[in-house]
Amino acid sequence: MDVASSLAVVQAVKGALVVLAALGLTAYKWSTDTVVTDDAVYDYIVVGAGTAGSIVANRLTENPDVHVLLVESGGDPPFETEVPGMFPFLTKSAIDWNYVSEDDGYSAQYHRNGYLDLPSGKVYGGSSSIHHFYYVRGHANDYKAWVDAAADDSWSWENLIPYFKKSECLVDQDILNSPTGQYHGTNGYTVITRELREISLKYLEAFQEVGNKVVDDINTGYTLGFTRPMVFIGNGIRQSSAESFLLPIKHRLNLHLTKETTVDKILFDNKKNAMGVQVSRNGKTFNIYARKEVIVSAGAFNSPKLLMLSGVGPKAHLESMGIEIVADLPVGESMEDHLAVVLAHKLEKTDETPKPENPSDFPIPTFIGLDALDTDQGYPDYLTLNLICRNNPTNLLLLCATVFGLHNDVCEQLAKAGQGREILVTVLNVARPISRGKVLLRSKDPKDPPRIYTGFLSNSTDLENNAAYIEKFIKVTDSSYFRNIGGETLHFDLPNCKGLEKNTRDYWKCYVLNMMDTTFHYSSTCRMGSVLDGELKVLGVNKLRVVDASSMPNTVSANINAAVMVLAEKAADLIKKESDQYNVGHCVT
Ligand SMILES: Cc1cc2nc3c(=O)[nH]c(=O)nc-3n(C[C@H](O)[C@H](O)[C@H](O)COP(=O)(O)OP(=O)(O)OC[C@H]3O[C@@H](n4cnc5c(N)ncnc54)[C@H](O)[C@@H]3O)c2cc1C
Ligand SMILES: *[C@@H]1O[C@H](CO)[C@@H](O)[C@H](O)[C@H]1NC(C)=O
């Protein structure tokens, strides 16, 4: 199969899913929609039922006297979100905001489009309903920077451990009975399991032989090494925040969920108190009010967009859009994301027909690694997500062309190499990149998508580092396993890198520029420390917080969903504590 026919198949499947959606196969689970009415009043309004918003809404409504409205642009998660094996069909669909990056004329040039698809979920569960399942918490060192930004030690790794445990229900006796079991929860809403297919073991051994540690549990805050990862899959079902935090509480009368409803503006009174929100649903607009607070959890693109539309953002930019300023803050600036570089290794010959995977498992056998150029530093420089495709050109094409929109030529070369071979596909990320992107408004019309600049590789240090990390990673080709079967790094025929000698630093830098994509970890667009205070309150205004990936002061050396969850758990506690204080001596209405 070539790229064109592979993409055609994907389109056909997506078309079929659109038809199936009409059957509303999951509607029975989600019979929770509240039709909003004008001038309704709640204690809290939470904007966005994604990873963070679902958690906040759940925790706040533990108190039956607290009334919360959770507003979501999307709707019920269709059944393909539940089945792990369906992951390639979730983006570029009706449950994706379908944003793309602005063409910066530099990165993403050797891509199908010259820009990047930047998927994010528009559905209950948000991006956790379309993500790729990896449960990785990040390193204690990452959270040190959160402590600095918040000027508050309660954001340290040690102090966040209870919140990680609070969300988690780890189903893995080996880990629970081991010394690292103490870092894991068994009573939380989100079921976490481990990827345990044995095909990874020979690779783990190979990485061990060339000097890496192999561990069972990478989520202890201080561990570097390679492992078969924990995943957001439980009972064969995706553990999105919607599945885990909203479904079990849909009977709560004090929680109203309203779907297919979009917040277009935060309403401020003349003392800069966030009084409520203006929403649109089916072409009608309503105002809804919050007695206590508005909590924005619309994700790393839409939270800054909403703030800016409401007058909270960089003055010059808002003025250029004709928006009146409420607070002049660096909203949308300094976006972080993990640049992904796709590497491939060609391994043993095999003419076995690909073994069909159970669609309830993680879709492709996988292992991950956290590594540093100098491991003595104790924290990672880069992280790798590794996928094993055994005589499976179809999967290779899906990964290459659909998950990462790499150039057709490259995808065809990859699929060809995978014919009758085992291929190790590696997504290599710089853990804490220096380059920054930004989110701007396209216009003051809420229906317009934001302008998103990834900023990828805009600082040349990232490019240099990325090349160095590749050089370290591919040392695995010196291991006995790789040598015995003639395993080798694939060098694609990249037109822009012609004439550069393979395996030189300049070659790898060129390779990075041509084989890059995003890992979908957009964050820090309303960061704690510059837009928010240490309690995630928006500076310069009152009764408004941002709680989601945008609030992160900096990214973490991991896939970021677990970090977004911990941030939301902690935020919910902060809000509840403050609300208890307010209520002392007051009549609670
Ligand atoms: C394809 C993909 C793969 C990923 N893979 C992984 C992985 O393997 N592991 C991992 O840890 N992380 C992964 N991530 C990242 C992770 O899923 C996200 O970082 C995380 O879900 C972000 O959570 P959030 O709460 O900030 O935003 P979201 O979960 O995106 O939630 C925002 C919600 O707000 C809603 N919304 C937005 N604007 C409005 C509005 N104006 N009015 C009403 N509602 C609104 C949206 O529809 C959405 O439901 C992946 C992400 C993607 C997209
Ligand atoms: C790149 O990052 C380094 C390290 O933070 C910094 O010193 C340098 O000024 C940056 N370069 C540019 C062009 O921004």
UniProtKB/TrEMBL annotation:
* Recorded coiled-coil stretches: none
- Keywords in alphabetical order, please: FAD, Flavoprotein
The protein's GO terms of the molecular function aspect are: flavin adenine dinucleotide binding; oxidoreductase activity, acting on CH-OH group of donors
Per the entry, which co-factors are needed? FAD
Which part of the chain is the Glucose-methanol-choline oxidoreductase N-terminal domain?
A: 299-313
Q: Provide the binding site for FAD.
A: 123, 263
Q: Name one Pfam family in it.
A: GMC_oxred_C
Give the family from UniProt.
Answer: Belongs to the GMC oxidoreductase family.
PANTHER family, per this entry? CHOLINE DEHYDROGENASE, MITOCHONDRIAL, GLUCOSE-METHANOL-CHOLINE GMC OXIDOREDUCTASE
The name on file for this protein is Jg20862 protein
State the organism of origin: Pararge aegeria aegeria
